[in-house]
Specification:
By secondary structure, the protein is an alpha+beta fold. It has a domain at about 85-270 and about 280-290. About 20% of the residues lie in helices and about 30% in strands. The chain contains five helices and 14 strands. The strands form four sheets. A six-stranded mixed beta sheet has the order 5-14-9-6-8-7. A four-stranded mixed beta sheet has the order 1-10-11-4. Strands 2-3 form a two-stranded antiparallel ribbon.
Length: about 290
């Protein structure tokens, strides 16, 4: 007696496709959002932001019968050019009609989702890369967990220089895991958010700074470079927000979809406080060397 098997019934057995796509992992996009926003300065025109310094004067002793000597400080300026190096980023796909018609998935929509993430990710990478260049104020050890003293030292540096609030710090997930060993960090009385109120990427508040974890900080494992900073120390300027452009090519019978952004991520130097100083320095940021 012959049996019906999966071999003899092969033409009657169909294949099933999942209604959803297995989309690629998307990491937390948090760093650029914490930067001061100077986009309004350049959203209509211009390719350079000029930031002149204004330093403090000297309070001189006034001698009886003697005239004061007028003070004149020759000031400098910082210039920030847009876009930053490789700061015009774009993606493009050409989707033929036949592929769009025959696919069960919305190909153009998927391009938009993937493109928006690619641009946002790159901006976060560029923002985080600024942290590793700080050799003026540095705490911690590359490849090792942060110590409580490192965070306290960072706080001291910002307060010594009267850094305005808000303050932030950003660390890698591995560094955050090390911070969880600190009772004061996880204790609610020190401002750690509960699980119902935690924001994406936000890990708590300690020593006056809101903490965030990011997978996109500079460094090859086990090394990572984060930062503890005053918001105004770093800034972003977007001349074009991530924008989608579409064009139909009748010769190719295809939609061309592109997305681009024009931007810069920058670090400003603070005008030093000392009387009659003429220098600018990194006063409102501390590099957090740690583990990835």
């Amino acid at each position: 007696m012959a049996n019906v098997t999966i071999t003899t019934a092969a033409l009657d057995i169909d294949q099933v496709w999942s209604p959803e796509l297995n989309r690629a992992i998307q990491l937390d996009i948090v760093i650029a959002a914490l930067f001061d926003d100077k986009s309004a300065l350049v959203d209509q025109h211009g390719n350079t932001i000029n930031l002149p310094s204004r330093h403090n004067l000297t309070a001189n002793a006034k001698a009886a019968g003697a005239a004061l000597t007028p003070q004149a400080i020759t000031e400098t300026q910082q210039q920030f050019t847009l876009p930053m190096t490789n700061g015009h980023r774009a993606i493009a796909q050409e989707i033929e009609d036949i592929a769009e018609i025959q696919s069960r998935y919305d190909l153009r929509n998927e391009t938009t989702i993937a493109g928006a993430y690619a641009l946002a990710r790159q901006m976060d990478v560029d923002a985080g890369s600024l942290f590793s260049t700080n050799t003026t104020n540095t705490v911690g050890t590359l490849g090792a967990e942060l110590l409580d003293d490192n965070l306290i030292s960072s706080r001291t540096t910002l307060r010594n220089n009267a850094a305005p609030r808000p303050w932030y710090f950003a660390v890698s997930p591995a560094t955050y895991s090390g911070l969880l060993k600190l009772d004061k960090f996880v204790n609610q009385m020190y401002g750690a958010p509960d699980t119902e109120n935690i924001e994406e990427g936000q890990i708590g508040r300690i020593y006056g700074a809101d903490g965030y974890e990011s997978q996109l900080l500079t460094g090859t494992a086990p090394n990572s470079s984060g930062a503890f900073w005053s918001k105004s120390h770093y800034f972003k300027a977007l001349q074009r927000q991530p924008t989608t452009h579409t064009w139909y090519s009748p010769l190719d019978l295809a939609w061309v979809v592109t997305m681009d952004a024009i931007y810069g991520m920058f670090e400003r130097l603070e005008a030093d406080e000392a009387a009659a100083a003429t220098t600018n320095s990194i006063n409102w940021s501390v590099r957090l060397q740690s583990v990835k």
